[in-house]
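Most newcomers find our protein records easier to grasp once they have seen one. A learned vocabulary of local backbone shapes supplies the integers on the structure line. Here is such a record, shown just as it appears in the course material:
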Amino acid sequence: MHSIKPKTALISLSDKSGLEELVKFLVSKEVKMLSTGGTFKAIKEITSEVVEVSDFTGFEEMMDGRVKTLHPKIHAGILARRDQDMQILQERGYEPIDLVVVNLYPFKETIAQDCSFDEAIEKIDIGGPTMIRSAAKNFKDVAVVSNPSDYSRLIEEWDKGDGISYDFRKELSQKVFEIMADYNLSISNYLKEESSSLPNYSFNKSSSLRYGENPHQTANLFTFTNLKHKNIANADILQGKELSYNNIVDADAAWECVRAFDDPACVIVKHANPCGVAESDDINSAYDLAFKTDPTSAFGGILALNRTLDTKTAKEINSRQFVEVILATDYEEGALAEFAKKKNVRVLKVDLEQDNPYPGIIKKVSGGILIQSDDNYVVPKEDLKCVTKREPTPEELNDLMFAWRVAKFVKSNAIVYVKNRQTIGIGAGQMSRVISADIANLKAKEEGLEVQGASMASDAFFPFRDGIDKAASSGISSIIQPGGSMRDDEVIAAADENDIAMVFTSTRHFRH
């Protein structure tokens, strides 16, 4: 397929970045430039070699610029097939347009701000999409550039001396239809009233990852459009090598958990499970306590803090452990200087407030997908039901609520031991709830943490009393669990026999 060397270009831009370089290049190639409105004025400041579209068509724009490029002379020039339509063009006194450089009104950027409905509607582009779709359809003879990031490649291709290749024109055409699909979808979603039907998702590919969960799997990161906050997928990466698939999954789990706490908190995650969680009066103390839960598992983990990370804590992290990813709401300059000593550590800045552009949790199954809402329910302290003879003390109640928050982020079957707002043992992902309790107890003993008088959370009910007896033998003094087992009476009796205070939440937190 042949390359082309455009003689006439139509330029109409909302995003004028890179315009000067492009215009100077087109002037050097003696390309006739047509333009409109603000773009015409911007080009006029660079060169006098530009023709206003209204002068080219002989048609004055109308309706405050709503109608200006919707003219046969424009679209015939773009759509004309050079091997069969040139005679018709000549008969009409029209000329071919070989290069279309157009980007669209910023609809998504407008609705991402606080704008009125009428303002949003005015940002629905009509002429721009019509021009780039025409050019994209006729890519055999026309080049269309809809993203300023492609200017440099266009210039490079053309400067080789062969012009703009067929393959590049085809690639540019594909980009147009991808842009239009996203653009139309964003308008459709905006106009669509809230309903129970599934939404249409709009997102862009952010990056190709080195591999997926395992080296033999491929993976890509896609980021939802119109995000107002720094989420995991669009976090500010302040330093470090690129994130892996597992880094992203674990970082999301850590950030989701640390956001559940109001006071300064630290969460350390390993293989998508919290291995250490603590809440304290300051971030340094929170990190210290979280690390002490399970220093062995913390090695190579993901560390999340719900406050600004200070220099002192950064130095302690560097001296104590190897960490894959660090997440915080902000960083002191000294902290960033400290982490710069370990250049492979990924340092991310993320907002506590997160966007929610999709309905919750999406899981692939054979032949379809499952979609469920997020597990956002937080049981109020006043809704807890004490089912034992002994009620929890205020201190126990605080630890029970803390343990319950953590349990929600631990893979089922989940058991969490807590004392003084510090996890001292976590058992995760076991087929048996009793075995999860054994693991939590083992973790506490390994680190020399005192279980006597600690509180325990279970993400679902205890089907038998053996779990309660196991907790009692470990020194647990209070338990929080959903309740709802056929043998609740036996379970409650076991708690009373061991002087354990137990409360029911009447809700569970399975996490598979």
